Amino acid sequence: MVGRPAVPEVIWARPERSGRGPKPAYHRADIAAAAVRIADAEGLDAVSMRKVAAELGCGTMSLYNYVPRKEDLHELMLDAVSAGYDYPEPSGDWRADILALARQAREMMHRHTWVPRLMSPVYGFSPNVLRYLEYTLSCLDGIDARFGEKMELIAMVNGVVTTYTANEIATAERSRSLPWTEEQEQAARTGYLLSQISTGKYPRMAAGFAEDPGPIDLDGVFERALARVLDSFGRG
């Protein structure tokens, strides 16, 4: 494969285009933007060098001079969408600043529903991810904690956001694939659940539903999950 390295290599340490020859016809930003458009429209599995090349109007093999591996393409994609964060001046209230970033991350993942799938496999430390980390650490400047502890907090918050949003996305995608409405699906499942609880076999469930019959406030659950992570850090 043209340009594919034989040893581990970080895409960001690599020149924009390997080899000699004329001025590069494309930049990584062009390639990343094309891949993001495909993923947004058709899903992550639809992203391939062939499709990206077709989107750009160039030959597939020529792209390997810019992006040796598909894993590198994924890093480019994550870096591209990470450019969309807004970084206001830290307020001095670290909890409020971290929560605001977490809400931005959730919104970004809903715009680009493929992002949660790449959060674990992709190493990160791309230019825009480093910018995100530097800003997040600046929000934590007033906290008496070691660097490693602050990074743990950032990782825990990102883990909550990614897991929660991935579940929201999966639920929405499943609902769209059903031959009936989400409301009909929920009504059928609720009816079954209530029929089981009414048997008397599940007294704690029955008491719980009597206390809080729903519906679930998904935004509230998201905020409380993050608050618990931040509370545990504050007590540390």
From TrEMBL:
The record ties this protein, via InterPro entries, to: Homeodomain-like_sf, HTH-type_TetR-like_transc_reg, HTH_TetR, Repressor_TetR_C, Tet_transcr_reg_TetR-rel_C_sf
Q: Which keywords label this protein?
A: DNA-binding, Transcription, Transcription regulation
One Pfam family, short name: TetR_C_1
User: In which residue ranges does the UniProt entry place its DNA-binding region annotation?
Assistant: 48-67
The lineage is: Bacteria, Bacillati, Actinomycetota, Actinomycetes, Kitasatosporales
Report which superkingdom the organism of origin falls in.
Bacteria
Entry protein name: TetR/AcrR family transcriptional regulator
Outline the extent of the HTH tetR-type domain.
25-85
